[in-house]
Amino acid sequence: MRFRPRYALIPLFALVLTACGGGQVKRVSEPAASIQQLTVGSDGNWNVELRLRNYSSMPMRFDTVSLAVKVGDEAAGTLSATPGLSIGPESADVVSVRMQPSSAARMVVADSLAGGRSLFYELEGSVSATPEEKKQRSFQVKSRNSLNQAPGLPGVLR
Hints:
- The structure is a single chain.
- This protein is of the alpha+beta class.
- Helices cover 18% and strands 48% of the residues.
- The chain contains two helices and nine strands, in the order αββββββαβββ.
- The longest helix is centred in the N-terminal third of the chain and has 15 residues, at 5-19.
């Protein structure tokens, strides 16, 4: 078999073109929020572990969170926080938020805990975040999910 230089040049040109690609594309995507854990305190107030997810390809600083919470069919109130938390690309972190829920929402959660049933919830509102080296943006967030009683931890839903 004879060596053909023109066939050897094709992979070389492909390698050169790949090297000229310019690096990673920086993309800003809408973040997400969900409840990782809800703990009912002895006073009836809730401690909510709010999971903030950064789907962007660059770090983002999460400045403010304002999310209306609904449990079952009842409005519970608003989760408001100013975490000032920087989350790396395509990563998540958790922030604790104390909340005084409505009495109807307290009843829904108490019923769920007493019966060992899943608790369905909705979050809707806005999250303000600042992508690396850019201006702050406000993102609309809406999510639906459920929590279940944590085994061996009374008053805790995960």
